[in-house]
Amino acid sequence: MSYIGQFLGEKDTLMKIMEKDFPELGLTQEDCIEMSWIESIVYNSGFPTDPPSPTEILLQAKSPIGKVYFKAKSDFAREPIPVLGLKGMLKKFLEEDAALMIWTPYGGKMDKIPESEIPFPHRNGTLFMIQYYRNWSDSDKRSNSHIKWIRELYSYMTPYVSSNPRQAYVNYRDLDLGRNKNNSKVNFIEAKIWGAKYFKDNFNRLVKIKTKIDPENFFRHEQSIPPLCLS
């Protein structure tokens, strides 16, 4: 198991913080790679970074890592997870090889932004976001097993994350939360099941905007926001 973290600043500054607050991790200068923002995007996406430059990689018409299948789910935490919960999470996580979790810290300036300020509500009171992720290749015949595992991990985390509703990050689109059954007709009640998880109370405001701008629901997908006139 390995860890990758991102620090916004120079590695000399990071080392001072780590030596003061987390000396038990034994981080060294050799463990750190300084890079530009665009280089970090390419690096964290798993793309090869040598010899092509980051901009050359991003401008390619075809991904250099080929076709990838994956399943992802997400959570937001508003309270610290106790040690017992973290131990159980780690045990479940290690049941699957080549799995990935991304923990994104919140707080700071974000904590001062009210939920209703913009459509994205997960700011004030949110400690961190979690993504659970597993990918596999076309030759891997265990897709059902991988999906079952990530759903079990998600279920285990239930007591430790947000609730009523259990919130989710819209850019980690999770069809387990629900989906439009018909490609053209959308039911408001059904859509609110996942809409509230992504947008909380802002979902109702987004429906009003959708109704005004796109009443015929021309722009749609499995979890699109419905116009009221088609609900």
From TrEMBL:
Signal peptide: none
Listed GO MF terms: oxidoreductase activity
This protein's record includes keyword Metal-binding: no
Keyword annotations from UniProtKB, A to Z: FAD, Flavoprotein, Oxidoreductase
Pfam families: BBE (PF08031)
InterPro entries, alphabetized: BBE
Domain Berberine/berberine-like: 168-226
Listed name of the protein: Berberine bridge enzyme-like 25
